[in-house]
Fold each of these.
Amino acid sequence: MMNPVKFGPIEITSAEFVKSAVSLKGLPEERLPQVAFLGRSNVGKSSLMNALMGQKSLVKVSSTPGKTREMNFFKVNNRFFLVDLPGVGFAKVGFKKRDEMGDFIREYVEKSKDLRGLIYLVDIRHGGTPIDVETVESIRATGCPVLVVASKKDKVNQSELAKNLRLIQQRLDLDAKPLAVSAVKKVGLDPLWQDILDAVNGKELVEKSHGDDR
Ligand SMILES: Nc1nc2c(ncn2[C@@H]2O[C@H](COP(=O)(O)OP(=O)(O)OP(=O)(O)O)[C@@H](O)[C@H]2O)c(=O)[nH]1
Ligand SMILES: [Mg+2]
């Protein structure tokens, strides 16, 4: 049993790895809402999930891009799953050159009955790459709710932060600047948890304006 970890909108009392899957056949049988993390390889999906669950190494992290090659399901508070997806561009299973979102991820996004939304991470330093633009468009086309979040906030200074959030907003066609988070400095986790819980509860996922520094 873990010590409870408190965030503004949630107290984490349990976080457990349930299973890995490489096809839809491997999805968890337990019917709970799912919120999944997607983004280019190395963007910080697994690290952010550890930070959100108050864990050090429940989710495997590595400096080698392409570490996560399957979907991994983590059950939180016995209430919902957080899902770690393979890095875009490294999804081994049926990855199509033509389309940055792999077949396997696409199938999951299109067909999962329990997926409530995707958190799409963009490295704040890169300001939204063509791969990010293409992937977010592919997700939108499936109708799955998607929230864009900027990762590795600790890697930029204040002026780069403002400039790159604006770039991400423009390139990915968002209503507001994305939330910026840091798994290393544990910044932005409270508002991100609020968004995740909104998705779990079936509310709309949308980038909200919270001032310039978001
Ligand atoms: N400075 C900084 N580094 C980070 C942050 N988040 C992740 N990293 C580092 O970025 C690298 C990749 O992190 P991962 O969490 O493995 O990234 P991922 O998106 O899961 O990567 P794949 O599994 O390959 O798709 C690791 O070396 C992390 O330590 C952050 O907020 N700040
Ligand atoms: Mg990973």
Note: The pocket of magnesium ion (ligand 2) is lined by residues 45-46, 67-68, 84 (CB under 6 Å).
Amino acid sequence: MYCANCGVKLGDAETVCPLCATPVYHPALPRPAGEPLYPRGHYPPQPERSLAAQIVVTALFLLPCLITLVCNWQISGRITWSGYVVGGLLVVYLGSVLPFWFSRPDSLIFVPLWFTGVGLFLKYIEHSVSGQWFMPFALPVTAVLGLFLTALLALLRRFPKRKLLIFGGAFAALGVFLTLLEWLIYEVFQRHRFLGWSFYPLIVLILFGLTLVFLSLNRNARDAMYRKFFL
Ligand SMILES: [Zn+2]
């Protein structure tokens, strides 16, 4: 007997597919007794995460940090360019290595954490070059992007069956964000007049987002698309 939905082989006593939870039911077949093929509640042991690899990778990040700091200190007597190198490496480490110290890294914690790290790094750069662009520009852009991505992940986790609707909304929101970004660049830096380059991605992203929203709400259109593209 095989699952009518996903095609996995089923034990004779199986009442529900263990993979996709489709009920196994055929009124004409008597259900013979038997052991289920897959044990319930027992999962194969997860492979041990290698602590040694984590330590080596961390050392590979710390070593260039130390070397640049020492070189910079020896040459200039203070921390100048090495601050950018170390800050950049720490931001990369925060996003790519730190989560793997945990057995189940939660993206809803690490994504905002990473954007906080990026924000602090940008604040540091602004401070070292005596700029005036963090509060009016870098902070709002980093904060909005971080909140946007965190909200997207939270929605996908909360409503896993609503992916099309969520991504449709996200694409439209991204288009609006780009237009606001162009406006902000124009407001803060006054380097050029408002060109409107962001209207092109805005139109494309909104059309694409609306298409996804339409597909998510209209079952017939969605099925037709699935058949056409084998999505
Ligand atoms: Zn199945």
Note: The mean pLDDT is 88.
